[in-house]
Amino acid sequence: MLLDTIAAISTPRGEGGISIVRMSGQDSLNILEKIFKPKNKKVSELKNYSINYGHIIDNEHIIDEVLVSIMKAPNTYTREDIIEINCHGGYLVTEKVLEVVLKNGARIAEIGEFTKRAFLNGRIDLTQAEAVIDVIHGKTEKSLSLSLNQLRGDLRDKIATIKKSVLDLAAHINVVLDYPEEGIDDPVPENLVDNLKKASAEIKDLVSSYDKGKIIKDGIKTAIIGKPNVGKSSILNSLLREDRAIVTHIPGTTRDIIEEVININGIPLLLVDTAGIRNTDDIVENIGVEKSKELINSADLILYVIDTSREIDEEDFRIYDIINTDKVIGILNKIDIKQNIDLSKFSKVEKWIEISALSKIGIDNLENEIYKYIMNENVEDSSQKLVITNVRHKSALEKTNEALLNIIETIDMGMPMDLMAVDIKDALDSLSEVTGEISSEDLLDHIFSNFCVGK
Ligand code: GDP
User: What is the ipTM of this complex?
Assistant: First the structure.
């Protein structure tokens, strides 16, 4: 596919060691010829996959001293000719280099357009393109490793195997229908049926891996709640291991909701420290209370905090009563000055963990318990297994499995083969949706609009 030549600054804006202006398309080398003076050579003499010293010029005017990488199609990121100009990393100088490139025939690239070309030109499928953005956004090693597996093509390959089992069945049916003497009444060969059943089981595994995949990729939203002064901000700080939330003696100082991400054994935990939830005339505080209720509703996990140095009171229960889920870990804080308290009325809390946020006692244990909680709820360790992290893949695969189960049922019940045609088509179509062989312009726009400029 021949497309026009695009260009963009591919490195973050601002001052830095170097910046890269990238070009992709059939005119890249022609444009380079007009704007680049390599030392002691002509552009036409530059070798493929070489890095070349020289100057970017605009009408004999030196714009910058640069290194230029030449990568000719087809073995490039986009499968097109790609030129990368390493300029000095200043805001203005990089802009000027881009300007010269554009003036000489390139067009400014849309967000994600380089990767979109890699997809349109068949170098990667849609799952790999989606993995590119996940790699860029990856916050923990675990999520990065899932994205890298997907980028490598693990999901694409799995889809291809599943697709093959459906295509094998389709081929068999075609032969039988075209040549009835081959045995139209014979049962579908066992190995074909086995492959379909295996494919269906694999899809089921993939679909059920989504909840875990989503947590690894996006994190688990965790709200720290409890009445004012029990130590919520201090707990947030000890988990963050830095002083981010303001800790004071006056009840209710954490008025705004503070959001932080911490990494617990590779799982991003999105911690929100709520303002003290209490009935009060203070308007600011009331807004906080409402926000807290919302947060509890949207949280995947709640850390409910009690101050063990004081008697449990009504206010503790008022907050406890808002909790509308069993996804709660109880925290008994201030054990450095604790007294005996009665926990028998907190039936929603299965597990209590003793800590002192101030003296940093029990913080590691708290982290471990949070991790165990997340893992038990969602996963056995499955670093080796294929995991999906994208809801688009999940819903397409659910459609595939529905179709596969229909096919298997039709076979098991010995019904005529031509009854399977619609389900076979549905299965193949939904698989093609995952890999992007079938895709709409809207879907592509949606996916690539999440990219960065120059990627
Ligand atoms: P929040 O209102 O629930 O966010 O509570 P803060 O984190 O602001 O803490 C309220 C007060 O309790 C502060 O003076 C903290 O220093 C103190 N505090 C927090 N955790 C502990 C602890 O484990 N032991 C003791 N002795 N004091 C603590």
Answer: 0.98
> Cβ(362) to ligand 1 under 6 A?
no
Contact (CB, 8 A) for 231 and 334: yes
Position 418 scores a pLDDT of 81
Cα 331 to middle of ligand 1, angstroms? 13
**Could you identify the atom of ligand 1 that is nearest to the CA of residue 251?**
2
Alpha carbon dihedral 374, 376, 380, 382, in 10-degree steps, equals 0
Predicted confidence at residue 250, as pLDDT, reads: 52
Question: Hunting for tokens 């303002």 — which residue is that?
Answer: 275
Which protein residue's CA is at the shortest distance from atom 10 of ligand 1?
Answer: 229
Gap from CA of 295 to ligand 1 centroid (Å)? 22
Atom of ligand 1 nearest to the CA of 226: 3
What is residue 217's predicted lDDT score, i.e. its pLDDT? 87
- Sequence-distant (≥ 6) Cβ neighbours of residue 195 within 8 angstroms: 165, 168
**236 Cα: distance to centroid of ligand 1 (angstroms):** 11
Ligand 1 center from residue 256 Cα (angstroms): 17
pLDDT at 258: 61
In which residue ranges of the chain is pLDDT below 70? Answer: 1-2, 180-185, 242-258, 273-292, 377-384
Distance (Å) from CA 364 to ligand 1 centroid: 18
List the structure tokens of 443: 């879907």
Any atom of ligand 1 within 6 Å of the Cβ of 333: yes
Nearest to 319 by CA among 415, 240, 251: 251
Continuous H helices in 5-112: 28-35, 91-103
Closest ligand 1 atom to Cα of 355: 23
- pTM of the complete model: 0.77
Can you point out the beta strands (E) in 315-409? Answer: 328-333, 352-354
Whether residue 262 contacts residue 366, with contact meaning beta carbons closer than 8 Å, is answered with no
Q: What are phi and psi of 281, to 5 degrees?
A: -85, -15
Beta strands in 25-147, from DSSP E residues, in sequence order: 36-38, 50-58, 61-71, 82-88, 107-108
Distance, in Å, from the CA atom of 366 to the CA atom of 354, rounded to the nearest integer, reads: 8
pLDDT in tens, 358-368: 999 999 999 99
Cα dihedral: 363, 364, 367, 369 (round 10): -100
The reply to whether ligand 1 has any atom less than 6 angstroms from the CB of 358 is yes
- Predicted confidence at residue 277, as pLDDT, reads 44
pLDDT of residue 278: 47
Euclidean distance between CA atoms 157 and 162, whole angstroms = 9
For the segment 30-64, what is each residue's pLDDT rounded down to a tens digit?
A: 999 999 999 999 999 999 999 999 999 999 999 99
Annotated binding site: 22, 84, 123, 229-234, 248-254, 273-276, 455
